[in-house]
Amino acid sequence: MKPIHQFRTLATAIALALTFASTGVQAVDAPTPQAEMEKQKVVFQVSASDPKIWNLALNNAKNVQQEIGAKNAEVEIVVYGPGIGMLKFDSAVASRIDEAVGDGVKVVACENTMKAQKLSRDDMLASAGYVPAGVVELMKKQKEGYAYIRP
Amino acid sequence: MKKTLLATITVAAFAHAPTSFATNWFQLQNNEQPGAAFYKFWGFIQPTYMYNEGGAVNGIPATVVSPVNGANVPVPAGLSAYNGQAALFNLVGPDLDHGEQLQMFRARPGVRGVIPGTGEKINYFALAEFGNNALTRERQAVLTDATVTFNYIPGARIRVGLGRLPLGEEAMQGVQIMDYINFTTVTDQLLNERFVQPYANPSRTHAAVVGAPMAMSQLNGAFGGFRDVGVEVYDWFNRGRWEYTYAVMASQANGISFSDDLNPGNHDVTARLQATYVFQGAGPKREDVTAYAWHQEGKRAYGSSDYTRMREGIGAKYLNHGLRVSGEYIRAKGMIYVAPTPQFNDIGSPAFEPVDYVALDSSNKADGYYLDIGWKFAPKWEVDLRYDELSKMTNSAYDERKVSAWTLGGQYFYSPKIRFALNYEIRDIKVVNPEAQLTNGQKIQGTAAGIIGASAGNRISAQMTWVF
Question: What backbone torsions phi and psi does residue B268 show, to the nearest 5 degrees?
Answer without folding.
Answer: -115, 150
